[in-house]
From TrEMBL:
Any one annotated GO CC term: outer membrane-bounded periplasmic space
Organism listed in the record: Amycolatopsis bartoniae
Alphabetical keyword list: Carboxypeptidase, Cell shape, Cell wall biogenesis/degradation, Glycosyltransferase, Hydrolase, Multifunctional enzyme, Peptidoglycan synthesis, Protease, Transferase
Name this polypeptide is given: Penicillin-binding protein
Gene3D superfamilies: Biosynthetic peptidoglycan transglycosylase-like (1.10.3810.10), DD-peptidase/beta-lactamase superfamily (3.40.710.10)
Signal peptide: none
Nucleotidyltransferase as UniProt keyword: no
InterPro entries: Beta-lactam/transpept-like, Glyco_trans_51, Glycosyltr_51/Transpeptidase, Lysozyme-like_dom_sf, PBP_transglycosylase, PCN-bd_Tpept
Residue stretches making up the Penicillin-binding protein transpeptidase domain: 365-626
Keyword Ligase tagged: no
GO biological process, any: proteolysis
């Protein structure tokens, strides 16, 4: 045993001497920081200190980004670290007293480092008695935590070095701490430390911790609350009051005893505080969602679209999660909630296999503001609750298409090419087979039939209202697929047409053109396009209406009113410019043609049932097997698209009813009977008491 003891002692001698030398250098650093430049190790430290000091000065703490509606009401938070920074004067004295008592009693009188503490720690660590003592001041801990949680937040290797129990790291920290002690006030250092430290999980800083654990603010923390939070800093996981309540209680009481020893708390008050329960909020910690999935039911898809829109404008995901921005969106809370209620009444949130999406855009010559993006589904990850993590309103998620609403594109292309006007008679047999573009002797003809009895010929005006298939396929053949597809793109299908017929990004490696080609290419030789059997975005279809209602001006559907940074300064957002895609006369004439749908057309019966009497435009759509139905239109200064489609793993025919459901009803849903009612329901409320805005008159140039 004696030999072992001697060997152990001999092993500890170099460590002991080295620790004494380190302590001497640190002490010298307090007296004269230049002394830290001596020796190879100190040279290494000095070379990195200036760079780290610069990083500390320029690296901003990650802050929470707040997303609001157009009235400034918060709808979501985006963050990587949940942090609510506060200034020193907004932190209760109980909190500052608790953290100083347990972490650094000489904080108010020492420099950036504590020579006595560091010598004591060096002697203890060299003794071989087990464990280590940090000897770090609050200023040093501030430096360390700022490096880990801010400067090197995204660099695991650098964070490992920031935590390393090495002489170089401690010397570097000490020198930076001395610099901070010479340039910053004690109050700023203490508040900076309390704003940067972790309190377990994603909770950083005293502002977030006070809210998460006690539902209060830092200026209102009492003794026992402050002591609990001060105790957590040493080991946030071990002293988590939810996962380790007993350890948290014992640690809290230790801090309270330290406060008594440090003469900042009377013994009798300490006993009262120690006798109190933990007092944390139930089922906590209470922190908001860090994504748009935490938004209200009527705002989740809108928030997700705003986030993706900003990323396309040049913001990175990390910037949005850490920048502390305030993003004011164009979302109208009244419109959004009203249409959300309407679609939920039409198709319940958890209805098996049926989605009802609804988008509202405000037309304009300078911008097309998105006012609402809702669905009966909610934005989330639990399908059992009717949630989906796909933005089914913004994306080309309706893979079955929006049916005959695509006849808008054929009509516009025909008018632009001078092939037909609003009063032009169109051949309209009850059924007809057509030769596909580019067909050869082996290409099968495309045969269609009308669903019902129609006049032959029929005017384009009446055709838009009653939607015969034969007349529009014949018109599409006459105009040509390139012109029709180009018109669809111009009017608004900018993203939908870039997807393949599965609604996904084309895969060039696929040998199947359904998956390898974008719709703009795939449909060049397919007359089925005008019948709307391809994936489409509900938001983009509402923007098609907005383009017509803006006098033929297309603008990207814009969800952003403004972005301001953490200091309240405006941040510019890049946006694609608006385009005059069709003449004003053409847009007005097409609106006039679409104005009969709710009067004598395919949605007239539903309009009468809803006591609808507002001048509007509309075009319904129904796919061949009623797996998707749509109403696309607009009223006053609202452009809309309501789409009901099968969204489950086993799509079937959609059946009308209360509620709308999947089935084999034999007389499936139509756009007028299932997709239009939420529109009437919502806008009867939104337009109540407001004067009607008439539909523009047709331009004679586009009548024949």
């Amino acid at each position: 045993m004696a030999i072992v003891a001697v060997v152990q002692l001999s092993r500890n001698v170099p460590r002991f001497l080295g620790s004494c030398a380190i302590a001497g250098v640190l002490v010298a650093g307090v007296v004269a920081p230049v002394a830290m430049g001596a020796g190879v190790l100190s040279n290494e430290v000095s070379d990195s200190v200036d760079g780290i000091s610069a990083s500390l000065a320029t690296s901003q703490q990650p802050l929470v980004t707040t997303v609001t509606d157009r009235d400034g009401n918060p709808i979501a938070t985006l963050y990587d670290q949940y942090r609510l920074p506060v200034t020193y004067d907004r932190i209760a004295q109980t909190m500052t007293a608790a953290i100083v008592s347990v972490e650094d009693r000489r904080f108010w009188s020492e420099g950036g480092v504590d020579p006595k503490g560091m010598v004591r720690a060096a002697l203890h660590d060299s003794s071989g008695s087990g464990g280590t003592q940090g000897g770090s001041t609050i200023t040093q801990q501030y430096v360390k935590n700022y490096l880990i949680n801010v400067v090197d937040r995204g660099n695991k290797a650098a964070q490992y070095a920031d935590r390393a129990d090495s002489i170089a790291r401690k010397l570097r920290e000490a020198k930076i701490a001395v610099q901070l002690g010479q340039t910053e006030s004690k109050q700023d250092i203490l508040s900076g430390y309390l704003n940067v430290v972790e309190f377990s999980g994603n909770i950083y800083g005293i502002g977030a911790a006070a809210h998460a654990y006690f539902g209060t603010t830092p200026d209102k923390l009492n003794v026992q609350q402050a002591a609990l939070l001060a105790g957590m800093v040493n080991n946030p996981n071990l002293y988590n009051p939810y996962t380790h309540p007993q350890q948290a209680l014992e640690r809290r009481n230790t801090v309270i005893d330290d406060m008594v020893s440090n003469r900042v708390l009377a013994a009798k008050d300490a006993e009262i505080a120690k006798a109190s329960p933990l007092g944390v909020v139930d089922n906590g910690p209470d922190i908001p969602s860090s994504t748009c999935m935490g938004a209200p039911a009527d705002a989740g898809f809108f928030c997700a679209y705003a986030e993706s829109y900003l990323q396309q404008a040049g913001f990175t995901a990390d910037q949005l999660e850490t920048g502390g921005y305030t993003i004011k969106t164009t979302m109208d809370p009244v419109v959004s909630q009203t249409v959300k209620d309407a679609v939920d009444a039409n198709v319940p949130t958890t209805q098996n296999g049926v989605a009802n999406t609804f988008a509202v855009v405000r037309p304009g010559q300078q911008t097309h503001e998105v006012l609402a993006m809702v669905a009966n589904r909610n934005y989330g990850t639990d399908p059992a609750k009717g949630e989906t993590s796909t933005n089914i309103v913004a994306n080309a998620s309706n893979v079955f298409g929006s049916g005959s609403s695509f006849k808008i594109f054929t009509s516009a292309a025909a008018m632009a090419a001078g092939v037909a006007g609003l009063d032009t008679p169109l051949p309209n047999a009850s059924g007809q087979c057509f030769t596909q573009p580019g067909a050869n002797q082996y290409t099968a003809q495309y045969c269609v039939q009308n669903d019902g009895n129609y006049p032959d010929p029929i005017s384009l005006r009446d055709g838009l209202a009653t939607s015969p298939n034969v007349a529009f396929v014949g018109l599409e053949q006459k105009v040509g697929m390139p012109a029709v597809l180009d018109m669809a793109r111009k009017l608004g299908l900018r993203n939908s047409l870039n997807t393949n017929v599965a609604g996904a990004t084309p895969d060039p490696s696929s040998k199947d053109t359904r998956y390898s080609e974008p719709q703009t290419q795939y449909f060049q030789d397919k007359l089925s396009f005008t019948l709307g059997n391809s994936p489409v975005s509900p938001l983009e279809m509402s923007n098609v209406s907005a383009t017509l209602m803006s006098g033929g001006v297309w603008c990207p559907p814009n969800p952003i009113l403004s972005v301001t940074d953490r200091n309240g300064q405006p941040v510019p957002v890049k946006q694609q410019g608006c385009e005059q895609v069709v003449p004003v006369g053409l847009a007005n004439t097409l609106e006039a043609g679409l104005s009969q749908d709710t009067i004598s057309g395919t949605s007239a019966a539903a309009a009468r049932a809803a006591n609808w009497n507002h001048p509007d435009i509309g075009k319904t759509g129904t796919t061949q097997f009623s797996e998707s139905v749509a109403f696309v239109g607009g009223v006053d200064d609202y452009a809309v698209a309501s789409m009901v489609f099968a969204d489950g793993s086993h799509p079937q025919e959609i059946c009308p009813g209360n509620p709308v459901h999947l089935g084999n009803c034999g007389h499936g849903a139509f756009g007028g009977t299932v997709a239009a009612p939420p529109y009437f329901h919502a806008f009867n409320q939104l337009l109540a008491g407001k004067p009607d805005i008439p539909i523009p008159a047709a331009d004679p140039q586009y009548l024949r």
